[in-house]
Amino acid sequence: KQEVTQIPAALSVPEGENLVLNCSFTDSAIYNLQWFRQDPGKGLTSLLLIQSSQREQTSGRLNASLDKSSGRSTLYIAASQPGDSATYLCAVRDNFNKFYFGSGTKLNVKP
Amino acid sequence: NAGVTQTPKFQVLKTGQSMTLQCAQDMNHEYMSWYRQDPGMGLRLIHYSVGAGITDQGEVPNGYNVSRSTTEDFPLRLLSAAPSQTSVYFCASTPVGHNSPLHFGNGTRLTVT
Question: B26-44: per-residue pLDDT in tens?
Answer without folding.
Answer: 999 999 999 999 987 789 9
